[in-house]
Amino acid sequence: MSLLEDRAADLLNSLNIPDAGPRRIGKLVAYDGQMLEATGLSLPVGASVRVIDADGHATRAEIVGFKGERSLMMALDGEAPHSNGGRVEPDAKGGVAEVGYELLGRIVDATGHPLDGLGPVGASATWPLAGKPANPLDRARVTECFDMGVRAINALLTAGVGQRIAICAGSGVGKSVLMGQMIQGADADVIVVGLIGERSREVADFLATKLVPGVREKSVVVAVPADHPPVLRIRAAMRATAIAEYFRAQGKRVLLLIDSLTRCAHAQRELGLSLGEPPTMKGYPPSALGMIPRLIERAGADAHSGGSITALYTVLADGDDGDDPIVDTARAIVDGHIILSRSLSEQGVFPAIDVGRSLSRVMADIVDDEHGAAASSFRRLWSVYEENRDLILMGAYKAGSDPTIDEAIARRQEILSFLKQKPKERFELPLASAELIERFGA
Prior knowledge:
Structural class: alpha/beta
Number of helices: 15
Largest sheet: 9 strands, mixed
CATH topology of the largest domain: Rossmann fold
Number of domains: 3
């Protein structure tokens, strides 16, 4: 008997119980189809809970606010048969993301559950969904080129390791195709993709066509279609960023792609308006515009680990409006932006990059003088043609009046051909730079 007692004592002593106090359980008191209210909880905003339905099943929810003694919650699992007085339990795992090398090659949802049918992920570590507080001085400078595999970007909008880039365009102009080219051509150790608020068909198409063999093995995909609750769409972006932060802490060169940042802002708009926030520009509450810099600032290079997150965020310009609040907010916080032109896409120029309106803020620091001069020459010819486009097309411009305009007209097709690239083609950075210098250098 003493042997059994000794074993029992050993088992009890091995248990690590951080809080031996009672666990506070809440009670569901209101439900209007979107927002739930509970009493008896004292959990902070962002905490996760489990709501026991009338049929005894547990559904997930997140605390998004409070009114006096009532906690306001947003459901994560859609509609459920909730009943008055239902049990509301804390969920300790809701605020962290499961991370680790076991995620490579896997597809998960906003809560970390696998979608690929390959069984449990079995991640070995955790990382806060909201990220870890960082000192701005821990961010390393962008001093090294990042090969994107796209000729126009490598040559004219050269990206750097740790740069944050916004890809802005209207619907159907080629954002997702350009992202696929970058995924297949990027020089990265790990690729993390967040497919936020897209159509389910596009998610399946992206996985089948963009994650080719050799790329999928080093990729992690977090996918949440448009028909999911807004909290899940926000969580998916946070989870994808948290996974990227973990691999950066391991010293890896990470490429993070969020498609799209606008869908995240739309989700936050739904959430904010439900909580009674006042709408501002185009109906966006302050929390929707404030979420964008918080998400983007988590990317970048780490001076301590040597790892980096080079981030690409697609931004949907509603109605091709370049002054849309989300486009303007994202463009102001990133280190560069790529504007896609509908008129170019209608001419069959893909990727339809508007070179004159696009910019890489780190390019001057990471390319040599010869490359920079050739890029400036290309941009000069592009801008001169665009400024005089109406005169040229109407026939009002007289040849010989300005040698720069004459050169821009004569080389227009050469300029457009330099931008064109087939979806499966890859142009490495040295090749793109050499071709630019050869064709447009001094």
